[in-house]
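S1.2 Input.
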Amino acid sequence: MSNGKSRPLVICALSALMFAACSKNVLPTSATLEGNTYQNRFFNFQVQVPPGWTIGNKQDFEKALAAENSGQEPNWTKKEKIWDLLLLASETPAGTPANSNPAIILGMVDISDEPNVQSAKDFESLIAHSIVERQKTWEQVDNPFLVRLGSKEFYRVDFKIDISGQIMHEAYFATLEKHYVLILTVTANSEADVNKILTLAGFPQNGK
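S1.3 Output.
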């Protein structure tokens, strides 16, 4: 005869197994957007969209890319083809004609078929080299260095971008979770403005 006191233990064990099974099914794109807070469950990462900014969609992102590339088809690398956009937020709607449009872009890349990429730093170094080689208007400012955004460690590398004579600044962050790279980019008029945006997004920076 079973002991009635064992039933709660059995139920708890079953609940734990169900929770573990559900956790394994969390996709890298599993996220919520409540108010101005984007939260991704897979990467355990959240971003605060600055007040008054526009939250865009994939079509906005593609439109902005087309504008940046002067209407020409981008020469994507293999890694960029499997890029998934998670969040696009900008000071004004993406693609709006303006001298500058500070933006936050969150995306991810599956690197399961890239055995030579063993860390986020490897990925950043590879991408930085690719960008500078392909985009002659981009200048790499520094080598990847370690920073903390929230509870996660990222590698950061900065670029200066010449857009029709106007210099923009982009900070590029990457962290590795299983075989996915989570990428955060912040673009603004200067490094100081980038760091101000990072503070508004919930990630104050203490310098290099």
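S1.4 Remarks. Residues 6-24 form the longest helix (19 residues).
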